[in-house]
Structures are given as structure tokens and as C-alpha cells.
């Protein structure tokens, strides 16, 4: 549960960075490997989650809810941990 809370806090920090010219981004890693990257677009209030597989292929997901984005990231991290 604390890992999910940490993810939510990181996403909320991104939401609170309004007024910056750059799109806030965060990377999530497992064992030093980037498994996903998240961007927050303040003009639309949406999160974009890019998930990377072992071959560096990516899948992109859009979320307009911080909780839904956090759960997706949590699932990606847990899956990556189970394969490492």
C-alpha cells in the first residue's frame, strides 16, 4: 500500500507544477531499468503513461484521473518485479 501511496504523491506533485513551461515527467524504474514514464498535461488535466517492455517497445495510455493512472503504474511496477 505504501508503494501505491508513493506513486499517487509523485503524480499529485506533477499536477501541482502548473505554470512551468515544460511538461512534468517522471520515470519509474525496477532494478535500475526504466519500465515506464509518466507525463502530465496541465492544459487537458491528463496523464500519459508510456510502458516499456524488455525490447524497448512502448504502449501509451491516457488517464484523466490520478488514481487510475497510479493504479496502472503500480500494476506495471508489480509485473516488472515479478519478472526480475
Q: What features would you describe in this structure?
A:
The structure is a single chain. By secondary structure, the protein is of the alpha+beta class. The protein has one domain (2-83): Signal recognition particle alu RNA binding heterodimer, srp9/1 (2-Layer Sandwich). Helix content is 38%, strand content 33%. It contains two helices and four strands. The chain has a four-stranded antiparallel beta sheet with strand order 1-2-3-4. Helix 1 (2-15) crosses helix 2 (66-83). The longest helix has 18 residues, at 66-83. It starts with a helix and ends with a helix.
Assign the CATH topology.
Signal recognition particle alu RNA binding heterodimer, srp9/1
Structural class: alpha+beta
H-E string: HEEEEH
Largest sheet: 4 strands, antiparallel
What's the name of the CATH homologous superfamily?
A: Protein of unknown function DUF1797
Question: So what's the overall shape?
Answer: globular
Protein name: YkuJ family protein
Pfam family, one: DUF1797
Summarize the structure.
Helices cover 38% and strands 33% of the residues. The chain contains 2 helices and 4 strands.
Tell me the layout of helices and strands:
Blueprint: H1 2-15, E1 25-30, E2 33-41, E3 46-52, E4 58-63, H2 66-83
Antiparallel strand pairs: 1-2, 2-3, 3-4
Helix pairs in contact: 1-2
Organism: Siminovitchia sediminis
Pfam family, one: DUF1797
Protein name: YkuJ family protein
